[in-house]
Amino acid sequence: MINANAQITTARHEDRRKEARYMLVLRAGVLKQKGRTSFCMVKNISTTGVQLKTYAAPILHAKATLSVADEQPVSGRIAWIKGDTAGISLDRELDSETLLRVQQKLRPDKRRSIPRIDVEASAQLRTGGRILRATVLDISSLGARLRADTKLHLVDRVLVEFADLPSISAHVRWVHDGEIGVAFDTPIPMQIIAQWLEGRIACSGS
Description:
This protein is an alpha+beta fold. It has two domains: about 5-110, predicted glycosyltransferase like domains (Thrombin, subunit H, Beta Barrel); about 115-205, Thrombin, subunit H. About 20% of the residues lie in helices and about 45% in strands. The chain has three helices and twelve strands; from the N terminus they run αββββββαββββββα. It has helices at about 5-20, 95-105, 190-205, and strands spanning about 25-35, 35-45, 50-55, 65-70, 75-80, 85-90, 115-125, 130-140, 145-150, 155-160, 170-175, 180-185. Strand 2 and strand 3 (about 50-55) form a beta hairpin. The N and C termini lie far apart (about 65 Å). The model is unreliable at about 5-20 and about 105-110 (pLDDT under 50).
């Protein structure tokens, strides 16, 4: 005969196990597959798998690497796809500390929590009545890193004009060795950036 207290203890253990297995998360990430990089949103996570909202079509059963904030990238395979949602089966189980860190909401002003994607695209900067040519080196919803042949200064106001994207107001956050970092006044929705990146890939024929 099974002790009633033992049954209650077992039930509570199962509840805790399920809570640890399925963690609701809304965190931006970067998905890499077969040399292609795209933005995604981590919807939930467990020790063995991750559910994503994707902004570019992933490849079923292909190897994948996922990066979230400052955590080390994790690897696995795309196990299933349903519309714009996909699941990754991880190669190695995640430890509980990593799960908790990924689940935690970071402060909105912690810019490192927002992923950036490398890209090479042309842009124009309008500032102080000048029009400057620039090359976009990476981009996120909050800002971009650019290379420009002219000198700008911290807190300079600029209007950034990307090909196939609306112009956006920004200010210079840093300057170093011919590169500048700009922060957008209004974040660009991740889906818009993802579509823009896909357009750059299509234009390059890769």
